[in-house]
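Human: We require from you a standard protein entry with sequence in single-letter code and fold as tokens, and nothing else.

Assistant:
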Amino acid sequence: MRILYAEDEKDMNRIVTQALREQQYLVDSCFNGQEAIDCLESAEYDVAILDVMMPVADGYDVLKKIRQKNGALPVLFLTAKDAVEEKVRGLDAGANDYLVKPFSLDELLARVRVLTRQKHAVSDNILRCDDLELDTSTRVVKRGNQVIDLTSKEYQLLEYMMYNKNVVLSRSRIEDHIWDYNYVGGTNVVDVYIGYLRQKIDKDRDRKLIRTKRGMGYMITDE
């Protein structure tokens, strides 16, 4: 999943970004609100984590842009202000959740999982497709009783496809969602990683879950 994170305090930004990346999230981190607004113009996100008090444009400015561009994007506000009035203001402005600093990284990660589930209308942390299961909280992937060992990028790709089960995803949409702005590589990177997943998920299986839609892209389906 791709996350937009905006926080002007550099140490906090580094710590949270590292924690998110360790959980296999792709993170675009910004240090002011205008940078976050610029990112929104060029990428698709699953969750936005916004500090309320930022230079250039604050969290409310960014939230306004998000609601104008993508009304369904879950937004988590971070703030040092714990007054009830501040929380009410943030939620009334359109934020989905509100976390007061200082906070536990485990709690932040749990709230991100909740927001992701809500966006994709799933009830728990287990994503399923036929006998394939992916646990978003532990990052464990199984097909039947067999645990499947995936690299970070393979996991990110599989998770994205399973959150969009039965939906055809174009190569460009997958690449934009799984690889960040710093990626420099071959133009067939999506095809390569789909091949890796097929070797691990579908090889020697009668039922193939990863399908190619010629001229359109790829999908994972149990239909």
